[in-house]
Design a protein that fits this description.
PyrdxlP-dep_Trfase_small, single chain, PyrdxlP-dep_Trfase, pyridoxal phosphate, disordered N terminus, Aspartate Aminotransferase, domain 2, globular, DegT/StrS_aminotransferase, binds pyridoxal-5'-phosphate, alpha/beta, 3-amino-5-hydroxybenzoate synthase, 17 helices
């Protein structure tokens, strides 16, 4: 018996109910959904539901926090919880040493402190990153030197690093932006050849892998963040990974007022500056509970991101961020892609973001032009920098920091989706692609709205 409902409507209805995956059907929603009008033009939302919220927790977090509360040992000194977390995270990463600290910024600050970075030193960083990467350099009165972005990957352009090296360069600090590995082979090769330590800002890259090994274990040290938005979350928190025992001890000492690390510091004199950046037992408890889910979540994000990239490959003008050949897993803290307005009938990125949001797909333009931000360029007028480096060097610094590829990426092309969205279903991914497909189809009409 033929039903009145035709096959297309039926499948579309199933897809809207989120059951097409469960029934093992192929993705056929696009045909109907992409024929509907964009939400901004009065059509139905492509993604009417909600994405998984963040953070996630259950009784294991509740119990772990109460256990710490009742133990009356709330700080790591004299406690066991942070130490247990360090051991487990170190094993998860396959690193020799791990130190919990109060934030990702603290992790980077401790690493630079242990390396005795200071006035007169230069640190190479990308402009396409969270401002903390820059701040930790400036907190030490060192000079942050920007190296342009590889627009295809959103990562630091490893081929341009050597050009930025001077006799003052003391650290190369790549960031694994969005949780995907930067081009580690090339970066490490420059570091080795020029004898400059590589410090990995892995604050977004928990469990990301390069050639089957976790990032954060390749350079002298890696820094991780457990801030609320990150894939491993204790509200605030961070960790340092390193395979160098002496360096691990110096980091411990630096984060604990110069106490309890070791007698012989990594660098002569580096035992003489320190602060308090300790993690609490409450944070350690949260992290142990959250960590039980992180491997499974990372797998799911990778599966969904791979599927979304496949669906996006059918849409002209949408290019997912390239993963370098060595990448065996991304943390997908962000799903990053490039939007080409020429393929969207002249619709600009702001209009695209507005139309996509209206479809029930939260999205953002991502990082801006950090090297041109007034907060950063103002460093050339900082009285201490003028005293340390002189006016001429600071003016030259402004000129050195040109990043033309990053300008294009951050002002016109970059688009982000957040990690929690990748914890959704396959249907969620299909609806994201349907939303973009609709916007592409109606781009000329949308450009006039
Ligand atoms: C989050 C983040 C940091 C800083 O981490 P906090 O824990 O917020 O201090 C540093 N670098 C990058 C790339 C980050 O994303």
């Amino acid at each position: 018996m033929e039903n009145k409902l035709d096959r297309r409507d039926f499948i579309s209805a199933l897809s809207l109910a989120g059951v097409s995956l469960a029934m093992g059907m192929p993705h056929l929603a696009t045909a109907t959904a992409a024929n509907a009008k964009p939400a901004l033009l009065g059509g139905p939302k492509a993604h009417p539901g909600a994405f998984p919220s963040w953070p996630l927790f259950d009784q294991s977090e509740e119990k772990a926090l109460l256990d710490v509360l009742r133990s009356k040992v709330w700080g790591r000194l004299g406690g066991k919880v942070v130490a247990t977390f360090e051991k487990e995270y170190q094993q998860l990463l396959g690193a020799k040493h791990c130190l919990g600290v109060s934030s990702g910024t603290s992790a980077l600050y401790t690493i630079l402190g242990a390396l005795e970075i200071g006035p007169g030193d230069e640190v190479i960083i990308p402009p396409y990153t969270f401002i903390a990467t820059y701040n930790v350099v400036v907190l030490n009165y060192a000079l942050p030197v920007f190296v342009d972005t590889d627009i295809e990957s959103f990562q630091i352009d490893a081929n341009k690093i050597e050009n930025a090296v001077t006799p003052q360069t003391k650290v190369i600090m790549p960031v694994h932006v969005g949780g995907s590995p930067a081009n580690l082979d090339k970066i490490l090769e420059v570091g080795r050849r020029r004898n400059i330590p590589v410090v990995e800002d892995a604050c977004q890259a928990h469990l990301a892998e390069w050639k089957g090994r976790k990032v954060g274990t390749y350079g002298l040290a890696g820094a991780f963040s457990f801030q609320a938005s990150k894939n491993l979350n204790s509200a605030e928190g961070g960790a340092i990974s390193t395979n160098d025992e002496q360096f691990a001890r110096t980091c411990y000492s630096f984060h604990n007022q110069g106490q309890g690390g070791n007698a012989t510091a990594y660098n002569p004199g580096s035992g003489t500056r320190a602060t308090n950046l300790r993690l609490t037992e409450f944070q350690g408890a949260l992290l142990l509970a959250q960590m039980a889910r992180v491997a499974e979540q990372t797998k799911r994000r990778n599966e969904n991101a791979t599927y979304l990239s496949k669906l996006f490959s059918e849409i002209p003008g949408i290019k997912p961020a390239k993963l370098y050949d060595g990448t065996t897993s991304s943390a997908y803290h962000l799903y990053m892609f490039r939007f080409d307005k020429k393929q969207f009938g002249g619709l600009d990125r702001a209009q695209f973001l507005k139309a996509l949001s209206a479809e029930g797909v939260p999205c953002s333009a991502g990082y801006g032009q950090m090297n041109k931000d007034a907060y950063v360029t103002g460093l050339a007028q900082n009285k201490h920098y003028l005293r340390i480096y002189g006016e001429k060097t600071m003016q030259q610094w402004l000129e050195r920091n040109q990043c033309p590829q990053n300008d294009i990426l951050s002002s016109e092309q970059g688009v982000w989706l957040t990690q929690n969205m990748l914890l959704g279903s396959k249907t969620d991914m299909e609806q994201i692609a349907d939303a973009v497909q609709k916007i592409h189809k109606y781009s000329r009409e949308l450009a006039k709205v």
